[in-house]
Amino acid sequence: RGLDEADLWRWKMGITTEAPTEKGEQDYRFRVIVPSFDVNGKLNFFSARAFLPDWKGAPYSNPTMKREELVFNELNIDWTKELTLVEGVFDLMKCNDNASCILGSSFDPSYKLFQEIVTHQTPVLLALDPDARNKALKIAKALLEYGVTVRFLELPPGIKDVGELKKGEFTQYAERAKLMTMEDFFQMKLRE
């Protein structure tokens, strides 16, 4: 993914060699683990991704909790600046500094992150994967309905997610992201 040692420290990545101690417990070995911290610096979630090239199991393994109830890396968010939203943890590593992930492609007013954005009227740069375009448009519409300013980032053909970009390349696309209005939303829906 083109990350360097500074990225490892910034994202506090780790691994474990510990096998599960109880039957039915998730096995996090052979995975890169990226923690998330709440506004007070307390661990609130982590994402673990397999790193072996011939891995046969599920690529991600996360703790069993509702992602709707947390803000990934809230400790690092400045609600007064535009917030970039991406789908996954590894997409975050190619973004600008003020970013969070929705841990999937679903995101609505029931999510704590959505509620914080609305409360602070934080402008959003929506940078979801191209294959989630309809979901991204639905999210943009929901944010617009709450008076949130939304810019819509479109990746070039052949790029499947922000995580595939080279380091620093994200800024080029972010600068070209289009400010969305409800009219834009309907025009984009009509072109589908």
Layout of strands and helices, then pairs:
Elements: H1 5-10, E1 31-37, E2 43-50, E3 60-61, E4 83-86, H2 89-92, E5 99-101, H3 112-120, E6 124-126, H4 133-145, E7 150-152, H5 169-175, E8 178-179, H6 182-190
Parallel strand pairs: 4-5, 4-6, 6-7
Antiparallel strand pairs: 1-2, 2-3, 7-8
Helix pairs in contact: 4-6
Task: Explain the overall architecture.
This protein is of the alpha/beta class and 192 residues long. It has 6 helices and 8 strands. It has helices at residues 5-10, 89-92, 112-120, 133-145, 169-175, 182-190; strands at 31-37, 43-50, 60-61, 83-86, 99-101, 124-126, 150-152, 178-179. A 5-stranded mixed β-sheet has the order 5-4-6-7-8. Strands 1-2-3 form a 3-stranded antiparallel β-sheet, with no helix packed on it. Helix 4 packs antiparallel against helix 6 (182-190). The longest helix has 13 residues, at 133-145. It is globular, with a radius of gyration of 17 Å. The mean pLDDT is 89.
